[in-house]
Structure formats: C-alpha cells, structure tokens
Write the structure tokens for this entry.
Amino acid sequence: MDSKHDGSIPIILLKNASNGHTDPYTTHFPSHSSPLNGTYQPMYVPVLEHTLHIQPILGALEVFSEVQSYDDATTFFTYGGLIFTSQRAVEAFASALDHLSSAVESGSTSGKSILLGLENLTIPLYAVGPATALSLKHIKESFLPRCRILGGKDAGTGEILAEVILKDYNASYTESTADGSTEKESGKVKKPLLFLTGAKHRDIIPVTLTTAPSKQRIDVQEMIVYASNEAPDFASNLSTALCATAAAPFRWIVVFSPTGVDQLLRALGWLDDKSITRIGPDNSNWVFRHTFIASIGPTTRDFMKKRLDFEVDVCAENPSPEGVRQGIEDYMRKHVGQP
C-alpha cells in the first residue's frame, strides 16, 4: 500500500508487541480511519529486550504445596494481593505458571497442589493501565479465576494506582459498626502486598503505600522478576522503519519509555550526534514536518523535555491505544484539518 497517495498514516510504536495475545495497538489502530480518510499502519520497533526471572515467583508460590484444604488457600498465602505495573512483570508471572503446568504434565504433585491453590485464591490483582490489565486478564481466566483485577484503564499511572490500592485494600480490613454509621478496624492482620517489578522501576507505589497515615499504611515487598536492557538491534530496526515510512505524508512515532529516545532523535537528525544538543525541529512549524512524536504518558514526556530539551507533539491523556489515537487525531485536526 502506497502511503504517499492513500492517506494512510504509519504509527511506529517503540515497544515490543505483547506476547500471548494480539497486541491491542494492532487491533485498535487499523479499525479506525485517520483524519486523512485513510488507515493507520501500526508497526513495532522493540527498544528493550527482557530477561525473565521466575524462580522468586515459584518460591513465593511454594506455600501452596503444603495447603491441607484448598478452601484455606487465601489464608495460607503470604501476601494479600499482587501489584503489576508492566506487561513484562505479567509475562514473568505467566512464565512461572506455565513452568508449573509443564511440571504437572510430567507428574509433579507439588506443582498440581500449587495450581489448585491458585485456583482457590481470592486476592486483588492491581494493574497499571489497560494493557497490563489485559495481559493479566488472560492469566486470571486460566489460573486465578477467583481473583479480581483492579486499576487498569482507571489507573493509568502509578500515582493513581497507589490511591486505588489504599482505598480498596484498606476497605477489606475495616468493617461497619452495628448501626452502619462508622467504620472500625476488623482486627485482621493486614498482609503485605507483593510488587512484581523490574530491576529498574519507579518507587511511587511502595513509597505512597508505606508512608500513608498509620491506619492506612500497607507494607509492600518488592520482587524483581525481570531485567531490561536496550535491544542490540534497536538502532538498525529503527532505521529500517524510518526508511520504510519516509514517503508517507505524515507519520507518528510513539515512545513508551525514556530508553532509546536519544537514539530516536539522532536518527531523525533532531539531536546532535556528539552531544545532547537539540538541533530541531521547531514544533511550531508543523507545516514543514511529516514526522511527529507522541508519548504514552507524562514520565517519558517530562524526561524528553528536561534531558533533551524536546517537547513531544502529543502526550496521551490515557495510556492506551485509544488515548494515543485520540491525542494524534486531536492534534491533526487542529493543525492539519480535514482534506
């Protein structure tokens, strides 16, 4: 399809496509028409490569191998809930569960006990953003049918999810008085939450939960379940994507993290090769450009502004395919208009 004539808009996504199910960006963008009355063409350029660490997860689940009655699975489990802030953490958890499933097929009785314990577990699963929640939904359906997912599209940042957790988790440790007019502590021991995360992560959630007022305070134990490094072929793959879309009248590049944004700007000729001095473009002169940058959220936007003196054209109000597309379309209607 020749994007120079048909009005299609390439959407270069600097991320890995989701594993285990169709990536929501793949399904969302092609199902909508662009402001140029054409189509969107999403493509992926992975910035990071990930190494999953499943042994800590397996160790945490080992307690279920000693459960006498699976009705007590929630009581036996060390943690009162799980926190996921990235799809990679969900992938690591899924990989651990797949490992257990394979062990059961090979005759492992302890693996079978653990999976039965998980089937009877009733704890909250807290997720940042719709993509992480969607990945988690597949695990819930297969392994954790009695658990509930909270956050998701209603908690697009760690700050928001922390507030969701404080309200929801503390509610399970309070009870109404006889007349229903006030609430009091239930007397149950408040279990810690397990935060499955990468080696590099923001600490806003554990800090918010552990420094809340004493009656609301929640202990958080962090577990490193993956490590991320810049993909060695990122630069070459990015160059290939830029060359393939060079003829498009407009193209958008969506950045999902600070990693690799300096290479992106250098590849576009917008950052000096030997420094972090920005040499273009002038964001106000949109008419002379055909490449535009969208950020999934404020963290990456602020990093690019503070470290690289670069202002993205769009920062999604909601970190989702819908939020990114809406931001792009609002920008193009304002600056480009309908043909």
Notes: The chain is about 40% helix and 20% strand. Residues 87-105 form the longest helix (19 residues). Confidence is low (pLDDT under 50) at residues 1-5.
